[in-house]
Amino acid sequence: xxxxxxxxxxxxxxxxxxxxxxxxxxxxxxxxxxxxxxxxxxxxxxxxxxxxxxxxxxxxxxxx
Length: 64
Hints:
Blueprint: H1 3-14, H2 17-42, H3 48-60
Helix pairs in contact: 2-3
């Protein structure tokens, strides 16, 4: 195991459950924002409602 990974694991183990939740939520929100940006770039004519619906589908894994 490399030193950076060892430090990351040490930090994760030291985190409280609330801290882990906050990190997970922030990562989820960031993924959602990046996904929405990509969808907007590919479909500039779509409304925010359409973009949001597509993001929900993709995040749930229910897209076709």
